[in-house]
Each structure stands twice: as C-alpha cells, then as structure tokens.
Write the structure tokens for this entry.
Amino acid sequence: MSFPERLKAARLALGLTQEQLGDELHVTKSTISAWENGRDSPGFRLLPKLKAVLGVSLDHLICGDQVEGASELKSKYDAQVRNDAEAQLLKGYRRLSVKRRQGLLAMID
C-alpha cells in the first residue's frame, strides 16, 4: 500500500470527507485529493498536524512500517476497542481538533 492509499484509508476510517480533512489542515479539498491520487504530497510542516488529525503514526503513514514496540504500547494503553460504542467514541475523538481533544481530556480528568 502506498502513501496515498494509506492516507485515504486513514481518512475514511475516521469517516472524514476530503473537505473535512482539508479544513482541519487549512488546505483545500483539491489538495487532499491530489495527495490521495499521488499527484502531490503534503509538505513537511503539515506532517505533525496530519498525524494528530488522523491519529496514526508518521512511520505507518509515510513508510507503511509498523512502529517498533507498537505491541508494547498497545498492551500498556489497552488500546483494543471492545464494542461498537467505543469505536464510535474513538472515531469522534479523532475527528476533533487538537485543541478540542485537549479540552475534552481536561474535562474527563
């Protein structure tokens, strides 16, 4: 799977449209389309924001590699989704802007 395919898969997994992802990154829908079709790629400055919005590692997104030690992180944080309700919550959380995520976490704590 190539970068454009991984990008599109990550976007679709969150239920985001190209326009919604573009809004989060402050780029146009056509820019996202160009990335997903391999006509262009995001600049270096957008990668941290792309990682935060999509909730995926840059290693996976760019290289397709699994991060070394990922299984240890998974068990440490018990990141397994147990039911549909948890999956919906996770998708909703990942669609939030970084600032809103921080606010939600502060409210939960």
Remarks:
- The two ends are 38 Å apart (CA to CA).
- The longest helix spans residues 84-95.
- Residues 67-77 have pLDDT under 50 and may be disordered.
- Residues 3-108 form a domain with the 434 Repressor (Amino-terminal Domain) fold (CATH 1.10.260.40).
